[in-house]
Design a protein that fits this description.
This protein is an all-alpha fold and 158 residues long. The chain has one domain (2-157). Helix content is 82%, strand content 0%. Helix 1 (2-46) packs antiparallel against helix 3 (69-94). It is globular, with a radius of gyration of 21 Å.
């Protein structure tokens, strides 16, 4: 009887470790995807005034800024922050065990971005598609954070 209980505990422990490993792998993929996207968009936005961007990308940045030099400068500054966020996201991808606070900070940031699209200062919108799309990263990070917390709780209780 003691042997059966020991086998069940070992089986439960192994399942908890597999779950934690899966969540870790998924989180690292998500971090890698977002880090790459942050770097790509950030470098593109930052490089808009350098003459180094291919014309189609330069045109996209100019369209986003409506050709307004002040708006384009703010876009460049935003690009610099995106580069920083991309680099720090890659760092936490490699140092996953230290990333829990970072993860929840990113979740809050994505939540704020989603709220900014649901309650846009420009007034009413023609469609909810934009706010829904901008809510996806928040939902993804929140779900991943909750799964991570649950899997870590299971691993610690075993």
């Amino acid at each position: 009887m003691g042997r059966e209980k020991s086998d069940r505990c070992n089986s439960t422990k192994a399942a908890g470790e597999v779950s934690t490993m899966r969540i870790k792998a998924i989180a690292k993929v998500v971090y890698g995807f977002f880090a790459a996207a942050f770097l790509l968009v950030g470098i593109t936005a930052f490089a808009a005034g350098t003459g180094l961007l291919p014309e189609p990308l330069h045109g996209v940045v100019m369209d986003v800024g409506h050709g307004d030099a002040n708006a384009l400068h703010i876009i460049q500054e935003f690009g610099a922050f995106l580069v920083f966020i991309g680099l720090i996201t890659f760092w936490f991808m490699r140092h996953y065990d230290q990333s829990q606070t970072f993860h929840w900070a990113m979740t809050i940031a994505w939540g704020l971005i989603a709220l900014a699209h649901w309650f846009d200062v420009r007034g009413s919108r023609n469609s909810v598609i934009g706010p829904i799309i901008n809510s996806i990263p928040f939902i993804l990070f929140a779900a991943l954070g909750l799964l991570r917390r649950k899997s870590q709780g299971q691993a610690q209780s075993i």
